[in-house]
Fold this protein.
Amino acid sequence: MTFRFCYRGRRGAAAAALLGVALLAAPAQAQKYRTAAGIRLGKNNYGLTVQQKIFEKTTLEGLGLVGTREVSATVLAERHFGILGPSLNYYFGAGGHLGRHKDTGTFGGLDALAGIEYKVAFVPFVLSLDFKPTVEFNSDDWARFPTAFSVRYIFIKDKKDGVLNGLFGGDKDRSKSKSKSKSKTKDQPRRGLFDW
């Protein structure tokens, strides 16, 4: 068994820049969808991707990938953070994969993930670019550092909390929440400038 270190110069630099931008951004409301599925395109493989929101800022993603001599399935848990509102997010995640290579047989590994995604305005599509380093077991490569681009169609949207929500309905819900918040503020004692 030989060990190889696969590194793609430009891709590694792009992933490092993506990570730097992600760390500088302030956390905000995350993604605008619950369920999305589509295609994932990388240099050496392609396949299907499905994301399902399970908590407020957490999704599970399943990947089914096909390469020139292998097939694999990956499950990842991801945490999303807003950059400029809910349309532009960065995310981190981790998981694992299993697969089969034509020459070496069954393999597996552990995955990490860092990416950025954009919900396209006025259409139900999400575009994402990610960096997914892996540690491999029972494979010729001991580690891989692929990047990929994904296009997903949004099947189930997240509920709307936007500025235009009242324009197309939902005024009753908004007025109920406003009346509840007003009644709560009347019951609280008044605080001075220096009372914390």
Summary: The helical segments are 9-24, 171-187. The longest helix spans residues 171-187. The chain has a mean pLDDT of 77.
